[in-house]
Amino acid sequence: MRTATGQVQALFIAWQDQSTKHYHPVGRLVSGLRPRLPEYEFCYLQGVRDAQKAGFAPLLSFADIARVYRSDELFPLFQNRLMPPGRAEYRAFLTNLAMDPDHADPVTILMRSGGGRVTDSLEMFEVPRVAEEGSPYQTRFLAHGIRYLNPESQQRVLSLKMDERLLIMHDCQNDADRSALALRTEDRVIVGYLPRYLLGDAFQLLNVCEIVEVFVARVNPSPAPLQQRLLCRLESCWPENFRPFCGDHYRPMPSDATDLSSWCDPSADSHA
Fold it and tell me: What is the CATH number of the domain that holds 148?
């Protein structure tokens, strides 16, 4: 397995089983591997085995789950999930994600936007690393579940202010997901939910860290779609021995995939 160095970025791809709504980690995209290797690398994760049992089929152009795919150009599966820069709404789209339209790289766009399409059940998300400033653990995400909120709650989302604190509430009587973590305001209005892919790590942080906070990073009114309405920032401590997205399901299937295991070690230099 090759060890990553330099300004490497990585995102995970999760597939949602529509019958159970459970997310399975199935793939990983790594960028920034030049000059040792082609710029981009894709491989499947061990979690793809459980996903296949639930009905997952290999992704287009990535038929072999045991192979590492490398390219100097972004793979079509990911490129097709990016809005073309020539589109009239391109700059507004990136602004909605709290990104500079003039200095936005494709992998970060996919991380912030989730890379989802209405035609499939995929979601893309970043690999958290220890932050250089502020709280050690920081990650951004688009709040989920806003379309299921009542009109009053959806209207309350629009009045949220940047850096306003949102409280995390275990919605244990949620029929869709007993593990759901809702986001509510100080005046007790639910304004969204943590993405399901964050729940495992979020529960660990809530059990160990004295403070786990969610802040409003950006509110995007219409014409932005509901899935982009609320961008949030999760901050907390980085507990000793905490390894975000580092369980067996997140290990690469191929043995010759780039090694990112040092990212799971808070003391490693690669976190800096």
Answer: 3.30.70.2330
